Amino acid sequence: MTWIFFTLFAAVMQSVRTAAQKRLSGQISALGVTYARYVFGLPIAALYMLLLQTDLPTAFAAPAQVWGVILFGGIMQIIATWALVSVFQWRNFAAGTTFAKTEALQTAVLGAVIGVPLALGGWLSVLVGVLGIVALSYPANFRSLRAWLTPATGLGLLSGFGFALSSLCIHASSKQLGLPPLQAASVVLVSMIVMQLVLMTLWFLWRDRALFAALAQHWRWAAFIGLTSALGSIGWFTAMSLQNPALVKTLGQVEFFVTLLITWRLFKESIGGKEWVGMTLILVSVVLLLYTA
């Protein structure tokens, strides 16, 4: 099952990238951090596509609507990334992060609506995984309604929704390029990044030219984010070209194991009861997924 390898690789890269994004978000706007991913990630993604000896003439012969789907997916990914990075700027970011991690469930629901359904075992795996995420990241005062009714919660839901739509666009467009899955995923990835770069460059030239100087000043962190983002995207895009995106996102929740391991080993923070409950539920969801997929 090739998709499992690519998903696990993507999850590790994403956990590292998220930590770097949080570091850079203190220096650059949320949208600027998103832009850094594409600026420094494009050369790596393009090199990967060339190393695969991708049949570009066949890809470019795809119907015009394929490129429209890729463009829409790219716009939704920009919005989702901006929303996720913005969550960290709010005091109650734990609630926002929790709702952002409903991405797998939102992908499953939206997929069922547009014709990418899950079997019963897949639904069970997704639901158990979401419960695990909630157990890991719910606010300490979760019984208070005020803890949930915050801008961070809205941003978290928007992030999950945007990533869900983007994932489904990646899955759909890669199926219509007439290429082997790895090549198709690389074409979708490079095409999406190019479109995102054009849109965001025009935006910053119009609204915030100071960002370019800020990126130059913090280029080391920005380049690291671009590297880990490109590697992670290669994993995500390939896995989603091979498998239902909802299942890919569910398996990808093992990212939390990596994050907790980093927290425990590097920052010497203890792992409490809710972390153990959450990790157990995620592990159960992964076993269910692998058994039924």
UniProtKB/TrEMBL annotation:
InterPro entries: EamA_dom, EmrE-like. Pfam families: EamA. Keywords: Membrane, Transmembrane, Transmembrane helix. The chain crosses the membrane at residues 28-52, 64-88, 108-136, 185-206, 218-240, 276-292. It comes from the Bacteria. This is EamA family transporter. Residues 155-290 form the EamA domain. The keyword Cell membrane does not apply. The keyword Membrane applies.
